[in-house]
Amino acid sequence: MRNTHQRTLPASQDEVGALLATAGQDGDRLWPGDRWPAMSLDGPVAVGVRGGHGPIRYAVEGYEPGRSLTFRFDRAIGMDGTHRFEVEPAAVDGGTVLRHVIEGRTHGVMLVAWPVAIRWLHDAVLEDLLDRAEQAVTGTVARPAVWSPWVHLLRRINARLPRREPDPVRGGRR
Length: 174
Hints:
This protein is an alpha+beta fold and about 170 residues long. The protein is built from 3 helices and 7 strands, in the order βαββββββαα. The protein has a single domain, classed as 2-Layer Sandwich (Alpha-D-Glucose-1,6-Bisphosphate, Chain A, domain 4).
C-alpha cells in the first residue's frame, strides 16, 4: 500500500523544513492537534525517538533536519512500513513541496480497518496538516480542506468509543 499527500507552498525549503523539527513537540507547528489526537514524541526529533498519535505508534527511523523525517510503524498496530515527510524544491514556479508518504503492508485487524476507516481519517488529517503548514509559512490557507461525510460519521462513531490510555512502557493499549 502507498498513500501520498503533498502541497506546494510559496516558501523556501528552509522555512518549510523547519516545521519538521517541531513534530510531536510542545508548539508543534505541523500536526493539527487541535482537530485530531495529538502527535507526541518522547523527546526532540531524532532517530530512535518513539511516539505516535492516538493508537498509532511509531519510532523515528530517519531524520535529515529540514529535508526529511521518517517513522517506522510499530508492527503491533497491524502495519509493516513507514510514513515519512519530504521537503524539496518545487519543479515549477519556485516554492517548496511538502510531501507525506505511507508505504507498507497491512496485517491483522488493519487489513479491514485501513480500507474501511483508517485511510479516510488519515487522508483528512493529512490535508489538515498541509493546511497547518500553509498557514505556518504564509499566514493563510488558500483552499482549506473539507472533511467528507464519511469522515464526519467515523469521527462521531469514534467519539462514542471507550478510551484506553496508552501503555507508557510498550507504547500499545492497556
